[in-house]
Amino acid sequence: MRFISITEALPGMIAAQDVLSKDNLFILKKGTPLTEMVIHRLAIHGVLSVAVDERPVPPPEMANNHVRTSEEFQKFQHIYTVEAEALKKRLNTIIAKNEPLDVDALIGSAMKIVANTKGRISIFDMLHNMYEFDDSTYSHCLNVALICHLFAGWMKMNEEETRMATACGLLHDLGKLLVAQDIIQKPASLTDEEFNEIKKHPLAGYRLLKEQHADETICNVALMHHERCDGSGYPSALVEEQIDDYAKMVAIADVYDAMTSNRVYRGPMCPFKVIESFEENGYQKYGTHFLLPFLENIANTYLTNPCRLSDGRTGTIVFINKQKLSRPTIMCGKEVVSLADRPDLQIECLL
Fold first, then answer.
1. Among residues of the chain, what percentage have pLDDT more than 90?
2. What pTM, to 2 d.p., does this model score?
3. Where does 2-52 sit in CATH, by number?
4. CATH number at 67-269
5. CA 167, CA 149: separation in Å to the nearest integer?
6. Nearest-10 crossing angle of helices 288-301, 271-281
């Protein structure tokens, strides 16, 4: 048995102990196999580590190989690598040397990537295939900024609003850089004291941005991106009308990136499984005004995409069901398979 971070949990692992929430509520029984959905639900409940049996986990299948071998992806990968490193240096100078915050320079990193991603492959496909990048705070912030930029377009925001959404995504987790990294990266179970330290990062980021005279909206998003519309978030248990709209957008992009990002030890969680989790658990927590357009556009991004179903068949996504976005219609050879009518099937992965 060993303790691992929830971000290291892989489908197929077995829970070696009962899992309890920080409020000592029972969540998962010892011996339960971990699935992508189970891992996501543990993360939603704030579980940061889990005990698993010591047993080998097979390496992830390299789906989307056509993306990774494309010239378009190679160009994206190069630009992303350069800009992620530039962002890391800029953020570190703010933290370590108290250098002035230049929001325009920071946004420039994200906008260079956007400007060079105008082909047939979406930014989402690109991000899902960045296997060599870990889930560091720097790359996560850059990913959330890119997602928020697209999100703002879906919400019909103007140029200045889109810029603000991008900046908020880029700086939302700045406070995590002020938390001891041995706590952030601890592979074992966190103590209550350590968990409380991590929960301080929104306030730490807010204070740092205030000291840097950042825009009030950017400060508020750093403070509120873990708040939830039903009052279940932190640090202040705010409810929907008390939460900044940009914070609501960033919260959605934050969770989506966390669950779909590639890591060296596993492939991404299938976007349709993330959509399903949002459909089951998200509307009360994130509200419909932002969440529904986000999920609709994510689903539509993968229309005509090849996929593999849980029964092993492969096919093409040909129709998005607006009443159940996670259950599209798949053309498998000559057979039309409506997942809305087949609860026994799901999309296992995109190809």
1. 51
2. 0.81
3. 3.90.105.10
4. 1.10.3210.10
5. 9
6. 160
